[in-house]
Amino acid sequence: MEYSDTEQIVDQSFDFPVAHATVIEQIGTVEITSPSGDSVTVKEILDLVEEESYLTSDALYTAIIGNLDETFIGRKYYDDRGSATLGTVADDESTVSF
Question: Fewer CB within 10 Å, N side or C side of the chain?
Fold first, then answer.
């Protein structure tokens, strides 16, 4: 599944609070696929987490998404907010947009 589908799976699969072991048992084999095509199972992600239970779906979702590696982010260092490239100085520093 795409990582953008993770929140829906978490919401539909459990009643909260839910034990860590229950999550692993029910959806541990589900693979999350990165934009580059690599995949990782929910179990592999949550093995990094030291939680015994999750009180809300948001807590579980955050534990999963927050522990994905850098292959799950878009283009590294991409900035669509300005014309200056990361690491360079804009020609006219007096024009700053917030």
Answer: C
Closest CA to 24 of 56, 65, 52: 52
Task: Count Cβ atoms below 10 Å from residue 27 Cβ, excluding itself.
Answer: 20
Q: What pLDDT shows up at residue 76? A: 65
Q: What does the pLDDT look like over 33-43, one tens digit per residue?
A: 887 888 899 99
| pTM confidence score | 0.70
Kind of pairing between the strands at 39-41 and 31-33 = antiparallel
Are 44 and 29 contacting, i.e. CB atoms less than 8 angstroms apart?
Answer: no
Burial of residue 43, with CB atoms counted within 10 A of its CB: 0-12 exposed, 13-18 middle, 19 or more buried: middle
Q: H or E element: which one contains 54? A: strand 53-54
CB contact at 8 A, 40 and 27 = no
- If you count them, how many residues does the chain have? 98
pLDDT of amino acid 53: 94
Start-to-end CA distance of the chain, whole Å, equals 36
